[in-house]
């Protein structure tokens, strides 16, 4: 695609609004004139991804717009509130409750968990490590209290409730905190290693947190089926899986090579792979 064609697709986006509401990501401040060390600019990322691979993603970016989840970046953005507000804890609880569930079911379960803590989606602040452990620690090892006051009312599986309790203990002992997980000086490998120490948090869950909540710019979750489906559809490639499906392990080298031009903004290209996997959105673009 010619550069002028890429620019035509980008012209459909509201650049000023994107720059006002979505930059700088990761720096945890509202002043766009402030130094952007450790941060990144969503508009620059969109331009880079739109031009990569001869502009193959430009029509989809123009039709879909920027990922909306970056717009909430400034929520709880002051450093003073990190360890008390537990934004990252709630985000991880939401990921755990939603594992292997469709969107509406995942939201319903998470809302039940919030309700137990006297909270809601609009006011989630009662869901903290302390509130979870206040119930869990009443149990004396017999699980009756956890079962009746936490697992059953929330509709969680045994594995998920164990994961949330273990996550709470990691926060209580200081292994995890907002200040650690939102620190731009901490490497991705270190973040993944810490997160994967929590029962029930695997690579996919870690990647979802890093993309949607820590807003890291260059995450490529090849373990995500929709990312592989979108890649296959967009680039017309077949893999080693059943019926030519792309396989995370067997086709790793090919997948990595295909996505390399999108670096260092593969979190953005990942979002548009999801859009490609959505047939209606892909055809519309």
From TrEMBL:
It holds the Pfam family HhH-GPD. One of its GO terms (cellular component) is protein-DNA complex. Gene3D superfamilies: 1.10.1670.40, Hypothetical protein, domain 2 (1.10.340.30). One of its GO terms (biological process) is DNA alkylation repair. Residues 97-278 form the HhH-GPD domain. GO terms for molecular function: alkylated DNA binding; DNA-3-methyladenine glycosylase activity; DNA-7-methylguanine glycosylase activity. Signal peptide: none annotated. InterPro entries: Alkylbase_DNA_Glycosylase/TA, DNA_glycosylase, HhH-GPD_domain. Keywords: DNA damage, DNA repair. This is HhH-GPD domain-containing protein. It comes from Proboscia inermis.
């Amino acid at each position: 695609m010619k550069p002028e064609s890429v620019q035509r697709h980008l012209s459909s986006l509201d650049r000023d609004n994107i720059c006002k509401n979505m930059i700088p990501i990761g720096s945890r401040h509202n002043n766009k004139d402030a130094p952007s060390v450790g941060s990144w600019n969503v508009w620059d990322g969109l331009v880079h991804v739109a031009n990569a691979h001869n502009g193959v993603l430009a029509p989809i970016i123009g039709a879909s717009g920027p990922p909306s989840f970056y717009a909430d970046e400034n929520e709880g953005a002051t450093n003073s509130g990190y360890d008390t507000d537990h934004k990252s804890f709630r985000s991880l609880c939401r990921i755990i409750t939603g594992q292997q569930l469709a969107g509406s079911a995942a939201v319903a379960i998470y809302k039940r968990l919030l309700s137990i803590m006297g909270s809601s989606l609009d006011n989630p602040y009662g869901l903290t490590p302390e509130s979870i452990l206040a119930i869990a620690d009443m149990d004396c090892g017999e699980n009756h209290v956890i079962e009746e006051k936490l697992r059953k009312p929330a509709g969680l599986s045994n594995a998920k409730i164990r994961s949330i309790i273990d996550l709470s203990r990691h926060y209580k002992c200081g292994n995890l905190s907002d200040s650690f997980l939102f620190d731009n000086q901490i490497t991705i490998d270190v973040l993944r290693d810490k997160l994967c120490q929590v029962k029930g948090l695997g690579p996919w869950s870690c990647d979802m947190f890093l993309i949607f909540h820590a807003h890291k710019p260059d995450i490529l979750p090849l373990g995500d089926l929709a990312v592989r489906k979108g890649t296959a559809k967009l680039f017309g490639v077949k893999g080693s899986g059943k019926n030519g499906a792309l396989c995370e392990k067997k086709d790793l080298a090919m997948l990595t090579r295909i996505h390399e031009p999108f670096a260092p903004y593969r979190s953005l290209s990942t979002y548009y792979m999801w859009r490609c996997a959505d047939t209606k959105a892909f055809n519309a673009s």
